[in-house]
Structure formats: structure tokens, C-alpha cells
Q: What sequence folds into this?
């Protein structure tokens, strides 16, 4: 067989080129291309980086079997999602297993569940992360909030904040802390409703997280609650925009300091609805905001005095 240049018809990313077409656009110097980036040897300019990997996404150990890559690592699982799960009654192709094979799989599943956790701390972590995922799913929050809440629960366990406190309360407080750090309009009542613990315990757990971990929690303003309350009340865009202007104008004067943000937002919607001709009752607005009608009426009087 004739000997020829192996790179005659193909491109190898580790080969250094000296052609004029691959000169540096800044100084015209020599450009070197490797598997990661294209760099000028004279001035150090990075011409290109993060080249596309044209190889297969599967790994082949022999000619008959190809193993594809699994799911990415996730903070929502105690083992980062690396452990396997044994199914029930069927194989990989969906075929029903025999009675003898089902008994064998059941024994394997039992032994796997016994060796799944290496310590009591790991078992508590799995239980807490399960509660975080359940609450996030009930509140219909994003995966980013879920991952941040799970990481916050991990930090609480690593800093030894769980002894003496309920795991469910700390998991709920982690979800509430993630919402506060991202400026989401979720009150403590909203987060506690799907939880399996009393609100007083969640409040104490959140205070502990905020004090010990130094959370960058942002104060929730009434204007952040206006879109969600307006959507639940099914009001027009004109009322929603007017209520948002009322809330933002009140925030600039400092009247909203120390008040319930959801109750003040409900009062803004109530006032905006009456200005636009849609008569919203105080009871309906207060029920959506999870406050009393007296709170809505008090904030409405404060809005009338401001004349925003």
C-alpha cells in the first residue's frame, strides 16, 4: 500500500497550519489551531474557541453493544442522580418477566434499597431533597429555583443546622429562601400550604438559614405581587397597569415599609378596579391575597391620602 499523508483529505485539529488564509486578523502572525482554540502565536489573540466535537455521543466497547451517555448530574438528588433504579415486572424491552425472575428482581431491589444510603445523614438528605422537589412541584416553580433550594438545603446540612429542627421545616424554608433570593412573589403562607409542617417552624427555620448562611434575600415589594393577583382576579390589562403604577408610586414615598406586600397590592388592584369601572369586592381581593378585608380597606385609605 502506498504511503501518503494521512491529513491530505481530512482536517486534524491538532495540526499547526501556516497558510495565508489562517493568519491573525490583528497582526497577520502565525495562527495555531488545537483541539480547544485557535490562537495567534505572535500577539496571543484567541481567534476561535470551543470547537464542535464531531464524534459520536455514544461509547462503544465492542461491535455489538453501544452505551449512550446518561442524564446530567443534578443537585435535586442526594447522589447527584448517579444511582440506578431497578424496575418492576418488565425488562428493558417491556416484556413481562417470569415468576422466578420477578422474585429475583425483588430481592435485588430490596438489597439495593438497603445499601442506597451509607449513613443517617445521607438518608436525611434524601428525605429533605424529596420534600423540596414536592413543594417546588406544588408551587409550579422552575427547575432553577428547585436546584437552588436543594443546594441551600445541602448547605444547611453541611453547616450542621438540621439537629434539633424538623427536616420538613428546613426543606420548606429552603424553598422560601430561594424564592426570596430571586425576588419571586411568594409569601410564607403560599410556601407553607403544600408543606407538612406548621408555619411557625418554617419561620424559625428560615430565620436560622438567613442568619447562619447570610442569604442575599431581597425585600419583596407590592408591585411584584400585582401581576399574579391580577391574573387570579382576571382583570383587564388597564387595571393591572394602573395598579402597578399605584404600587410603584407608593413604594417611592416609603408608605409600603413594614406592611404586607400582598395586602397592599390587593388594595392597589381594588382602587384601580373602581377607577376603571370594574367593581371588585374587598372580600374577593382579600381572599386572593390571603389577607383580611380590613387590611385591604386600611391600605385603600392610605392610597386615597397619597393621591398617587
A:
Amino acid at each position: 500500500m502506498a504511503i501518503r499523508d494521512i491529513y491530505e483529505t481530512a482536517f486534524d485539529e491538532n495540526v499547526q497550519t501556516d497558510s495565508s488564509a489562517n493568519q491573525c486578523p490583528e497582526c497577520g502572525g502565525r495562527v495555531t489551531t488545537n483541539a480547544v482554540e485557535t490562537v495567534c502565536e505572535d500577539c496571543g489573540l484567541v481567534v476561535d474557541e470551543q470547537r464542535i466535537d464531531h464524534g459520536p455521543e455514544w461509547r462503544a466497547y465492542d461491535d455489538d453493544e453501544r452505551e449512550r451517555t446518561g442524564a446530567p448530574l443534578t443537585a435535586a438528588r442526594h447522589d447527584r442522580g448517579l444511582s440506578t433504579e431497578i424496575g418492576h415486572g418488565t425488562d428493558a424491552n417491556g416484556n413481562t418477566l417470569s415468576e422466578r425472575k420477578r422474585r429475583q428482581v425483588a430481592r435485588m431491589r430490596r438489597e439495593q434499597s438497603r445499601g442506597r444510603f451509607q449513613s443517617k445523614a445521607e438518608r436525611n438528605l434524601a428525605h429533605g431533597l424529596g420534600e423540596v422537589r414536592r413543594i417546588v412541584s406544588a408551587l409550579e416553580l422552575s427547575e432553577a429555583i428547585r436546584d437552588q433550594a436543594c443546594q441551600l438545603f445541602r448547605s444547611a446540612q453541611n453547616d450542621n443546622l438540621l439537629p434539633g429542627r424538623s427536616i420538613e421545616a428546613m426543606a420548606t424554608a429552603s424553598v422560601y429562601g430561594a424564592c426570596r433570593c430571586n425576588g419571586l412573589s411568594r409569601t410564607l403562607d403560599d410556601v407553607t400550604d403544600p408543606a407538612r409542617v406548621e408555619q411557625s417552624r418554617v419561620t424559625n427555620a428560615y430565620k436560622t438559614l438567613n442568619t447562619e448562611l447570610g442569604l442575599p434575600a431581597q425585600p419583596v415589594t407590592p408591585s411584584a405581587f400585582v401581576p399574579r393577583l391580577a391574573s387570579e382576579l382576571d382583570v383587564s390589562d388597564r387595571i393591572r397597569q394602573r395598579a402597578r403604577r399605584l404600587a410603584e408610586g407608593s413604594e417611592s414615598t416609603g408608605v409600603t415599609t413594614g406592611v404586607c406586600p400582598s395586602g397592599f397590592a390587593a388594595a392597589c388592584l381594588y382602587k384601580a378596579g373602581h377607577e376603571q369601572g370594574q367593581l371588585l369586592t374587598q372580600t374577593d381581593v382579600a381572599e386572593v391575597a390571603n389577607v383580611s378585608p380590613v387590611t385591604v380597606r386600611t391600605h385603600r385609605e392610605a392610597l386615597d391620602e397619597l393621591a398617587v
